Amino acid sequence: MDLNRVRPKIRPMKHEYWSCQIKKGHHRPKLPILIDHLKMIMHRYWIPLFTVFSCLVATLDASVGDSDPLYRACVGQCEKTGCVGERCFPHCKFSSDGVSIDGPWYMQEPLYMRWKQWDCQSDCRYNCMVERENQREALGDGPVKYHGKWPFKRVYGIQEPASVVFSALNLAMHFHGWLSFFILLYYKLPLKQDKKGYYEFATLWHIYGLFSLNSWFWSAVFHSRDVDLTEKLDYSSAVALLGYSLILAILRSFNVRDEAARVMVSAPLLAFVTTHILYLNFYKLDYGWNMKVCVLMAVAQLLIWGIWAGVSRHPSRLKLWVVVFVGGLAMLLEIYDFPPIYGYLDAHALWHAMTIPLTYIWWSFIRDDAKFQTTNLFKKFEIPFGQKTITLQRWDCK
């Protein structure tokens, strides 16, 4: 083959994208020229490539359920007609601000529904999910996630009724424990002349009680209605509670009493927890990273409490070991995820259920610790654990 006759037929371009070295009847492209050629392809076809890449990302990011064509078709049809099968929804006749499109003022969206933010899209997604899951169950298929959530059955508009009930019970148990701790300190144990208790960690436990009440309150709200605001409040409250609990575990186990030392120990952890909360709220709500952070803080404080109970030979170490051991097992439910049983009870709800008795035992340990510390300060008085009334005069101890 005469290469000198073939070469002139190649039309030169403005930028030379190919270069060949003619050696012994074959050619070999140079790497820099190949890179220039790829740049030319990206320059010419970046729009279709970007479209294909976006579709792939959307497909990978979506859950199995909401990627189902039958589910998508059902939702699309429902948003147009306002009906799924024979069931129709009045929300589809209202605009986004809750005002009726084709009715008088008294046909406005009910206030409790507007507060819960159930709208046409939410109702369509939920009922199409229920219908699609019924079809899958008839075929012998298991449940799948829709928009990152398991298919739960609503009860009076509540998304996850079991988790809401267990969160409310945890809230009640923490309030009971905190109140009983308060009564013990100020009505049963001796007080100083300024009417403050002798237990040096009382203020830290009061703050812990407030963090716990706040966390479980927003947990109940979030499981009642999952929107962006309630989700961030729930996650932020849980992280704040875990972070403060870790600080409290360090201060109590190492018996840190000096205020300056407490600040030095708490400052780095407070900075980390605050940064993490800001990251979740204003940068990216990364569920995987948040799970790792929460598990790390939870495991750290469980290990601290468990080891300290054995080393210190605390009189109520058995209660503490029960909380540590059962709490560690309950944490596995938070890590291991499975579909809700009968559409109500999933792993997260079971974790909430297991923490209810642990909360009672935990506050019982806190009260025992307050009695134990006070007893050490007053060796000449006997304050037996478990006694409901303390026969100790308030003003005899100064």
TrEMBL record:
One of its GO terms (biological process) is GPI anchor biosynthetic process. One of its GO terms (molecular function) is hydrolase activity, acting on ester bonds. It is found in: Endomembrane system; Golgi apparatus membrane. It holds the Pfam family Per1. It comes from the Eukaryota. The chain crosses the membrane at residues 45-64, 164-187, 199-221, 233-251, 263-283, 289-311, 318-336, 348-366. One of its GO terms (cellular component) is endoplasmic reticulum membrane. Belongs to the PGAP3 family. Involved in the lipid remodeling steps of GPI-anchor maturation. This is Post-GPI attachment to proteins factor 3.
